[in-house]
Amino acid sequence: MSFRLAVLGAGAVGGSVLDLADTYGHEVVAFADSASAAIDPDGLDSQSVRARKEREGVVGDGDPTAVFDTDYDVLVEATPTTLGDAEPGFSHVERALLDDRHVVLANKGPVAERYGDLRALEAESEGRVQFEATVGGAIPVLSTISDLGAGHVTAARGVLNGTANFILSRMAAEGLDYEHVLAEAQDLGVAEADPTFDVDGIDAALKFVILANVLSDEATEYRLDDAGVEGIRNVPGTALDLAAEDGRTVRLIGEATADGVRVAPRLVPKGSTLAVTGTQNIVQLETQHAGQLNISGRGAGGPETATAVLSDVSRLE
After folding, report:
1. Range of the structural domain that residue 45 is part of
2. Number of domains the chain is built from
């Protein structure tokens, strides 16, 4: 089944959805950045929209809110994640659900900060909400939990931030200090100019809060404030050296269990499945009947995350 998509957010993920939608059998009829919108009921041409954005700094002549007045089936919410009230992303989702449209989220805010509100809106709508892309990019974590049944998964733990993992991997492999590796990561585009979300553990914590919400099956609602979060800024190179002497290394490990959510640097054996290197991510699911399942892969990136978005769209059939 082919769906008409309205995409909010013209960054790496939204742009990749625009580029790849037709390869999944869908078409983008509306595409908006923070200041403008391109709309075509017959389907937008990705190259033309991207060329105009590069040339003029806008994607089209319309107002961003005009996307809600188009004849679309699924809203793809790919605007930047915000904390607290999760705005404006939450209001975008609310508008679409009130109009009985489906929603696919790449934006973590509404799922991590207002999960109960999100599910309440969905319950009153003809539309459904999907959000695989909010946890682990292309890694099918949430769909695996759905297939197993959330009630049969007792815990999730792992590495869910590529930037922090790259920094810790390089520190351990080369004996370099944090500031040196951070600068290298920024030069390579692995870390943002402002790396706070990544190196302070906030991004990973949001993902594990989402996992906790899914695993709780709405029995308990978690938000970022409920999580214990410690980042990697204060991990000294000497700690990694000492760990190596003992056959271990340090990774930023998150956990979603019955005891809540925690993200912090932890010692793991060098040969452990949790000792992924570079920008790789991994999630371990502890299950009641199937033992431990490990799912790993690229946890970020425009095309990678767009594949999760478009897979979610296809699941709406």
Report:
1. 4-137+303-315
2. 2
CB neighbours (10 Å) of residue 173?
14
Q: What's the distance, Cα to Cα, between the start and end of the chain in Å?
A: 6
Pairwise CA distance, residues 118 & 104, whole Å: 12
Tokens of 186: 């920024």
The angle at the Cα of 290, spanning 288 to 295, to the nearest 5 degrees, equals 110
Residue 119's SS3 state is: helix
- 81 with 110, same domain? yes
Tell me, yes or no, whether 110 and 243 share the same domain.
Answer: no
- Are 164 and 230 in contact, with CB atoms under 8 Å apart? no
Answer yes or no: do 150 and 274 share one domain.
yes
pLDDT of residue 188: 84
d(CA 281, CA 276): 7
CA distance 253 to 266: 6
Residues tagged active-site: 207
Indicate the annotated binding residues for L-homoserine: 192
Identify the pLDDT of residue 192: 84
- 160 and 294 housed in the same domain: yes
Q: Which amino acid is at 139?
A: I
Domain match, 178 and 200 both: yes
Tell me, what's the pLDDT at 176?
Answer: 85
Residue ranges in the chain modelled with pLDDT below 70: none
> How confident is the model at residue 193, as a pLDDT?
86
Residues 125 and 146 in one domain: no
Same domain (yes/no): 113, 150: no
Residue 71: burial class (beta carbons within 10 Å; 0-12, 13-18, 19+) = exposed
pTM over 0.85: yes
